[in-house]
Amino acid sequence: MTDMADLPKDAAPLPEPTPAQASAVGDALAAAPGGQRCGLVAIVGRPNVGKSTLLNALVGQKISITSRKAQTTRHRITGIRTEGQTQFIFVDTPGFQTHHNNALNRSLNKTVLGAVGDVDLVLFVVEAGHFSMADAKVLSLLSRDTPVILVANKLDRVHRRGEIAPWLRDMQSRHPFAEFMPMSAKQAKDIERLLAVCQNYLPEQPWWYAEDELTDRSERFLASEIIREKLFRLTGDELPYTSTVVIDNFTEEPGKTVSRMVRISATLVVERDGHKAMVIGEKGERLKRIGTEARQELEKLLDAKVFLELWVKVRSGWADDEARVRSFGYE
Asked: What is the spatial order of strands in the sheet that 261-270 belongs to?
């Protein structure tokens, strides 16, 4: 982590704000000259810097899970937002793994590298005022041929705002960033400001998706993500991040009293018997709570009555087994 006292005092001054940054949000999101704009924007960074929270805010709806536990995003998740004549296609990635060289982490890192390989713009997310070796590792993967915006997230946690300017000058010396964006993903005005800046880097071309689409992921996939989020949220730091969720059955039936009914059976996969007992909890109370909270959120997301059945199984060493990692849906 960079200490503020160690930042260079004679670094080059920050660049002047671009016209997009200086313009009003409403004007910036107006229709692009010449017609529609559409492009891919990758969101990258080390684990737990707020990438999934940022994606959900940019899309305007929750499509990626969030948790205090690091390394919760496992797959390349695409979120779509259409504003005016511009369609943003955001790709949320797992945090790049620098520890534990197992099959799962190799799969996660392959996903990160694939996501940044062919995009129009990269959002490199760090915590405002901090830069660690893990951040540096991710930054080293980014091409200098693709525009990169430095998103200094969690600005609301910085109490001495005067320290941000020298920190930004230090960051400027590390990579030729196209823009600097100190912000908080929880502030709506910051999200609209970021959208305004991103728009200028997207090519003029027809939209790839319908105007009302929010993600290219299936409802089955989103169900597994929401269950996994509740699993991590309700077990805290007790449960290793290698635990996962597999959807065994996802069927839709006509409802008698509702317009839509969905039945879901899922298996929560853990690596040890002790982890299984932890997930189930005393008299099954924790597993019941995981199921209840997941079902309630799924009913809102799917706009349906949901019947959810959960099982817990032990698969020792699955994260080190290439074949099993693939069978659980990882690339």
From this structure: 244-253, 261-270, 305-314
Task: Identify the H or E element spanning 121.
Answer: strand 121-127
The backbone torsions φ and ψ at residue 155, rounded to the nearest 5 degrees and listed phi first, read -60, -25
Taking 90 as the threshold, does the pLDDT of residue 33 lie above it? no
CA separation for the pair 58, 79 (Å, rounded) = 8
CATH topology of domain 4-199: Rossmann fold (3.40.50)
Largest CA-CA distance found in the chain, in angstroms, rounded: 71
In the numeric block, the tokens 């670094």 are attached to: 11
* DSSP-assigned states of every residue in 31-73: PPTTS-EEEEEEEE-STTSSHHHHHHHHHTS--S---SSSS--
Least trusted range by pLDDT, from 20-24, 79-83, 177-181, 241-245: 20-24
For residue 41, list its beta bridge partners: 90, 121
Name 71's Cβ contacts closer than 8 Å, sequence gap at least 6. 47, 48, 94, 95, 97, 108, 241
pTM reported for the whole predicted model: 0.62
Rounded distance between C-alpha atoms, residue 23 and residue 33, angstroms: 16
Q: 219-327, what's its fold?
A: GMP Synthetase; Chain A, domain 3 (3.30.300)
* Confidence band for 251, pLDDT divided at 50, 70 and 90: very high
What's the one-letter identity of residue 108? L
Residue corresponding to tokens 């062919």: 118
Report domain extents, the chain: 4-199, 219-327
pLDDT tier, 144 (very low <50, low <70, confident <90, very high otherwise):
confident
pLDDT digits (tens, 9 = 90+) for 80-114: 899 999 999 988 765 444 444 444 445 444 554 55
Q: In the prediction, which pLDDT does 215 show?
A: 82
331, 107 contact by CB (below 8 A) = yes
